[in-house]
Design a protein that fits this description.
By secondary structure, this protein is α/β, with parallel strands linked by helices. It has helices spanning about 1-15, 20-30, 45-50, 55-65, 80-85, 90-95, 115-125, 140-160, and strands spanning about 70, 95-105, 105-110, 130-135. Helix 7 links the parallel strand 3 and strand 4 (about 130-135).
Length: about 160
């Protein structure tokens, strides 16, 4: 929830949404809490799909033009098996971010929530070194994590059969 709050504040500060838009989005998010799965408790999803006060195109343009981030489609990433096995998907869902590579002490993270200070602070603490951030869509992250969790379930099933 903290990542949602700080993302909302950053979106208002960047003039991507108004304070009224944020309040309406938060109200809708609270309405969804009882009905939604944890993965669906996402302010950005509400702003994009329910209240429609923001488009992913606007957000991605801001990430590129104002934050100087590159963009990435996680569907095009081939993650090494060690990272796949040890990635905390629960934290990825909670922060809408995926650390997809590491080179020496530099981590590479794709995020739909890169504007949220809470998300950046969490991953900075987890990674313990410099991070190169990339913007991506909710769909890219969702598809990637669902595929990864499915692959993991297949591995576990195969191990249990052996």
């Amino acid at each position: 929830m903290r990542s949602n709050r700080l993302l909302g504040a950053a979106l208002v500060e960047a003039n991507l949404i108004t304070l009224e838009d944020l309040e309406a989005g938060n109200d809708k998010l609270l309405q969804n809490l009882d009905q939604a799965a944890d993965r669906e408790i996402c302010l950005l999803h509400v702003l994009l799909n329910d209240t429609r006060v923001l488009t992913e195109q606007q957000l991605l343009e801001y990430l590129v033009e104002e934050m100087s981030l590159g963009l990435i489609d996680l569907g095009e990433i081939e993650m090494n098996d060690d990272v796949k096995l040890h990635l905390n998907t629960g934290m990825c869902w909670a922060t809408w971010s995926v650390p997809f590579d590491r080179d020496d002490d530099i981590s590479y993270i794709a995020s739909a929530y890169a504007m949220s200070r809470a998300v950046r602070q969490h991953w900075e603490k987890q990674c313990g070194g410099p991070i190169i951030w990339f913007g991506t869509t909710l769909g890219s992250i969702g598809d990637f994590l669902e595929k990864l969790e499915s692959e993991r379930a297949g591995i576990v099933s195969a191990l249990n059969v052996s």
